[in-house]
């Protein structure tokens, strides 16, 4: 596998977009740089860069996990990333149905509000 940081940055940019990553990099400080490196290398360079699941599948799994755990800012960020991963609004809705059954209706209900609002902000009609 190539350098995990390099691979992670490439995957992170492909999924989240250059603008998002550029903002995150510009906001990085000496204090949180080790955390940002951990995310880039661990999440993006190791897990998201593996070949056995598509980015679309990883996107849907990530959204379901984030919704189930109540990480609302991250839900919005990963909804925005669906334009790059290929996960459709219908597929995201289906993932939220799984969240309702396996993680709870309140989590899915709140996540759906965020999903709808994020898609509206993106100019995507549902």
Automatic annotation (TrEMBL):
EC number: 4.1.1.44
Top EC class for this record: lyase
Protein name: 4-carboxymuconolactone decarboxylase
This protein's record includes keyword Lyase: yes
Keywords per UniProt: Lyase
Residues making up the signal peptide according to the UniProt record: none
Domain of life from the UniProt record: Bacteria
GO MF term list: 4-carboxymuconolactone decarboxylase activity; peroxiredoxin activity
Lineage, opening ranks: Bacteria, Pseudomonadati, Pseudomonadota, Alphaproteobacteria, Rhodobacterales
């Amino acid at each position: 596998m190539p350098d995990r940081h390099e691979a992670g940055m490439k995957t992170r940019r492909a999924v989240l977009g250059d603008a998002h990553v550029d903002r995150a990099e510009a906001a990085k400080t000496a204090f949180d740089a080790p955390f940002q490196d951990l995310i880039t290398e661990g999440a993006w360079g190791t897990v998201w860069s593996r070949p056995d699941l598509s980015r679309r599948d990883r996107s849907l799994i990530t959204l379901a996990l984030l919704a189930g755990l109540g990480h609302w800012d991250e839900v919005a960020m990963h909804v925005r990333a669906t334009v790059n991963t290929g996960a459709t609004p219908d597929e995201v809705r289906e993932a939220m149905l799984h969240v309702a059954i396996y993680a709870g209706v309140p989590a899915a209900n709140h996540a759906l509000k965020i999903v709808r609002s994020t898609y509206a902000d993106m100019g995507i009609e549902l």
